[in-house]
Design a protein that fits this description.
Chain B: It comes from Kutzneria chonburiensis. Chain B: Belongs to the binding-protein-dependent transport system permease family. Chain B: Keywords: Cell membrane, Membrane, Transmembrane, Transmembrane helix, Transport. Chain B: Pfam families: BPD_transp_1 (PF00528). The structure holds two protein chains of two kinds. Chain A contains twelve helices and no strands. By secondary structure, chain A is mostly helical. In chain A, helix 1 runs antiparallel to helix 12. Chain A is globular and about 75 Å long. The model of chain A has no long low-confidence stretch (mean pLDDT 89). By secondary structure, chain B is an all-alpha fold. Chain B is 71% helix and 1% strand. In chain B, strands 1-2 form a two-stranded antiparallel sheet. In chain B, helix 2 crosses helix 14, helix 4 runs antiparallel to helix 11 and helix 11 packs antiparallel against helix 14. Chain B starts with 8 loop residues before the first helix and ends with a helix. Classes of the chains: A mainly alpha, B mainly alpha.
Amino acid sequence: MTRRPGFLVYGLLVAFVLGSAFPIYWSFLVPSHGNDILTDKVPPLLPGGNFFSNAQQVLDTIPFWHALLNSVIVSGSVALSVVIFSTLAGFAFAKLAFRGSNVLFVLVVLTMAVPTQLGIIPLYMAMADFGWAGHLQAVIVPNLVSAFGVFWMRQYLADAVPSELIEAARSDGCSMIRVFWHVAVPAARPAAAMLGLFTFMQSWNDFLWPLIALDQNNPTIQLALEQLQAGYYVNYALVLAGTTLATIPIFLLFVAVGRQLVAGIMQGAVKG
Amino acid sequence: MTRLPARRPEATAPVAGRPDRWAKLDLKVSPYVYVAPFFVVFAVVGLFPLLYTGYVSLFDWRLGDDTAKFLGAGNYGELLADPQFWNALLNTVSIFLLSSVPQVVVAVAVAALLNTNLRLRTGFRMGVLVPYVASLVAVGIIFGNLFGVNYGLVNSLLEFVGIGRIDWQADRLASHIAIATMVNWRWTGYNALIVLAAMQAIPPEMNEAAMIDGAGPWRRFTSITLPMLRPTIIFVVITSTIGGLQIFTEPKLFSAMPGSDTGGSTGQFQTVTLYLYQSAFDNQRLGYASAIAWVLFLVIVIAAVGNYFITRRLAR
């Protein structure tokens, strides 16, 4: 294990990473030139200078900034809510003794496997009844909690918070909620950040439910992209400029926290 | 309470017994208060809709119509005799198999490559995760372009190497392969990281002992690594089953007529969830769509359980 691997390993990995990155690069390459490179026998591999004019056209065609703001609001509130409720429940399951805790936790694990996406029809009917259809709360409220989140925080807090610390705080007269706030929350921070990040990205990519619950006037970024594509003649230079624009914010996030994302996936694998 | 007896007497000295009773109540009730939000919200937005779907499926319930007619099992009877449903189910299973099997195999291979003493280790790990960050809708649009019939890059390459153009849209199997490619592209690296984590949890002594016994790298991989990865592979397969059988965004965006829900001109790549969406929101038949949802739910449960047993046997 201490020997450096040979060229074959590096070669295969580099090929895999290039294959992973290529479609995203392509979606930048096309609008940076124009539709004519789609008919080229050998397309150029370096970007041209037309990206900004195509991007400007995207901004003129769809309510891009409005959609981006909507996505930030939706994903941000969903992530925040999932983190808060998961940390609370995770703390109770990990550290507090109460009757029925085992049964309840098994229920949490079981609900992780339930495809809640299949409940969209009654959800749609309810949203229509409440008059929420077309408003952001219609996509926020159904995602306020996550069974995976509770599971994740419980696994983390079980090791991260020493039980003695809780007992000590209790015997000092701390109420339970103060124990939670001063002992559990600081310890939970790394796992909570990870959970927030994953939830944010998941919510950012959500498509089926927003498509049902929202309309064209008030879209998320995914719906706006779909709008851009809809039509018999697809102007790829325009549409791919849109996908690139929409990818930039999430890509910047990835550059900033990609390391933690990798660690989070690997950590979840060992524990889950 | 006995560990730190007289450290802060002013805090523990009860005022007429009341703070003590309060502390007991606090201890007893708090856990339930902390877990309640999850269960309440889940019951309202997760469990109830799923169950109510079953109720709606017993009616001829039209969009925007409050006078639903009770049908009993009528929708289910119609569904089982509906060729479009069976077509969609077959497409879903086909796309699922084309995506999950190669995905797990390649993910294990990539994980094995990553599980070496690499330079730029974090760089490579982030590199394989890039597709996971791309948004699903963007991926659908990009691959729709790459797999374009006339101007797609994939067909240009195929023509260049002498295979000739393939109609990725019209041909049934070809369209499944194209859609499965999107899924594979997006998830293989992610799953490779999960498998990598499991590989690193294998105690190095096991490999060292096998090496002393004269086992080569391939033998060590099949006799030690693969069996030790079994729980992780089961986890990956089951999560990809639950997600894969509900596939919607990729086939919806792959259509040559963007915005349509038919999954191609003859439904050659319409999946069950796409058919569900079409039934509910294009045909406005909420009851029928609910029946589709429940049957799909059953299919997912059966497939997940079946997968569990198959993977357990295969990865022994």
